[in-house]
């Protein structure tokens, strides 16, 4: 019995107006947009002075206000403020996983930006394995739980 013929079709997805518009943008637009968002976050952090405000100040953390517990992100803005001012121990006190992840995130952004631009050189992209990513998320979960325990040494991380 002969084999049936094999047909190969070139898949041509239909593109709407928005997809066609985005595909025609220059390569620098996406990094510039993300850079603008990062700059806005940095400006907000510097202008709001989060270290002088309590958990009940506006804007507030809803989880902390309703339960009294620190959520997984509590202390992140204060940690960013301390990192921007060079006080790494104080930043780690407020949010250790953010302090650990910040250099990796910064390098990922810089390498992505450099590689999107038409420069004569490229930076190697950071390849994070699934195991490392899962390990980081588990460590963040353990940190989020441990910082709410009411006895020493865990009270050090309660913000």
What do these coordinates show?
The protein is an all-alpha fold. It has six helices and no strands. It has helices at residues 17-23, 29-48, 62-67, 76-84, 88-116, 130-146. Helix 4 packs across helix 5. It starts with 16 loop residues before the first helix and ends in a 13-residue tail after the last helix. The model has no long low-confidence stretch (mean pLDDT 85).
Largest sheet, if any? none
Overall mean confidence score, pLDDT: 85
**Which spans have pLDDT < 50 for at least 5 consecutive residues?**
none
Number of beta strands? 0
What is the helix content? Answer: 55-70%
In short:
By secondary structure, the chain is an all-alpha fold. It is built from six helices and no strands.
Please give the structural blueprint.
Elements: H1 17-23, H2 29-48, H3 62-67, H4 76-84, H5 88-116, H6 130-146
Keywords summarizing the entry:
159 residues
């Amino acid at each position: 019995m002969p084999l049936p013929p094999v047909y190969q079709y070139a898949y041509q997805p239909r593109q709407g107006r928005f997809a066609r518009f985005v595909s025609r943008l220059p390569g620098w637009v996406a990094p510039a947009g993300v850079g603008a968002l990062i700059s806005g976050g940095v400006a907000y952090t510097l202008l709001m002075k989060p270290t002088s405000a309590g958990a009940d100040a506006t804007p507030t953390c809803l989880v902390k206000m309703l339960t009294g517990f620190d959520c997984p992100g509590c202390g992140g803005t204060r940690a960013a403020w301390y990192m921007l001012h060079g006080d790494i121990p104080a930043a780690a006190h407020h949010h250790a996983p953010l302090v650990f992840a910040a250099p990796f995130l910064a390098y990922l952004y810089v390498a992505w930006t450099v590689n999107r631009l038409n420069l004569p050189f490229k930076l190697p992209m950071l390849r994070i394995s699934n195991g490392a990513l899962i390990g980081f998320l588990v460590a963040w979960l353990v940190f989020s739980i441990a910082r709410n325990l009411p006895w020493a040494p865990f009270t050090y991380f309660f913000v």
